[in-house]
Amino acid sequence: MEQIPASIWTLTAGVVVTLISFWVGQNHGLFPEQASEQAPLVDNLFDIMMTIATALFLVVQGAIIYFVVRYRRRKGDEGDGIPVDGNLPLEAFWTAIPAAIVIFLGIYSVDIFLRMGGLNPGDHTSHTMGHKQGVAVVAQAPQGTTSDVPMLLAAKGDIDVGIGASPDVLGQQPDVAVKVTGMQYAWIFNYPNYGITAGELHIPVGKDVQLDLNASDVIHSFWVPQFRLKQDAIPGITTELRFKATKPGTYPVVCAELCGGYHGAMRTRVIAHTPEEFDEWLSQNQVASGPESTDFTPPSLVAAHLDATGINPQLLAQVQNEQAEAMPNDRHHHHSMH
Ligand SMILES: [Cu+2]
């Protein structure tokens, strides 16, 4: 029987590995649905990494299994292995390939970051002012009106961390601006243009939404898996997350930074409405919510908006109790008082 040349086997294995890798890259099913304009960008990058990872896995594991079987010790073979020390062309080859892959992934991920607006946090203030100014610019949107003019939340220079304007809205003001406060263990959403404070984030799909994030105690992280967006909320530093939702629906908001004993319960929802539904929600809640609270210190803020936030008062009391008990100083105080 004629021998099949090794090069044919290598070529066949290469074609099979390539086909499997591309299939896995497109069908891994690891992500939930895509619900923001940024989601497909992130997923394209991830799919490519998944394709490369699958190919590497198959080549490395395949080679291991092949070598284990092909070069196993046969019966009666008591000799030593062949001494191998170095193969320069081979080493250059397996250094160059990963280097090229890593450089490509680096350039591509920077491109994705740029298209998501990662290089433009704080963009709207600098561009709308025409030149860079260090002063706070706060539009005086009258409270209790349905003005569509967004209030500028922070001055140029106040925000330089986060995801800012994507290139298609560069220099424009966002359609909807929301102040987000993370605290142990809740998210509070404040709409300065409308005087609304809520425990769930309501946004219109297809509109340019800007979140200005802050934290009142420790670092939290605002994460919506379906949007493929995650941004730290940091005490004393305002961060930005600017995006467009593309699909109406209700999605989880998860705290993605271990922030204390009840971190796992620090969840709420983002409701992406059609623009009509969103306007309806705005007009309903402007009446219900009343004048905006400027007190952003927990737990008074939480207490002031218990109805709006939908947080169970018993749970809140329980959490605060256990927090107090967990602090040795507080306990000491109680003892000395008795
Ligand atoms: Cu948290």
From TrEMBL:
It is a multi-pass membrane protein. Keywords: Copper, Electron transport, Membrane, Metal-binding, Respiratory chain, Translocase, Transmembrane, Transmembrane helix, Transport. Subunits I and II form the functional core of the enzyme complex. Electrons originating in cytochrome c are transferred via heme a and Cu(A) to the binuclear center formed by heme a3 and Cu(B). Binds a copper A center. This is Cytochrome c oxidase subunit 2. It is found in: Cell membrane; Membrane. Its main location: membrane. Residues 173-284 form the Cytochrome oxidase subunit II copper A binding domain. Gene3D superfamilies: 1.10.287.90, Cupredoxins - blue copper proteins. It comes from Candidatus Synechococcus calcipolaris G9. It catalyses: 4 Fe(II)-[cytochrome c] + O2 + 8 H(+)(in) = 4 Fe(III)-[cytochrome c] + 2 H2O + 4 H(+)(out). Its EC number is 7.1.1.9. CDD domains: CuRO_HCO_II_like_5. Residues 23-120 form the Cytochrome oxidase subunit II transmembrane region profile domain. The chain crosses the membrane at residues 6-24, 45-69, 92-114. Its cofactor is Cu cation. Belongs to the cytochrome c oxidase subunit 2 family.
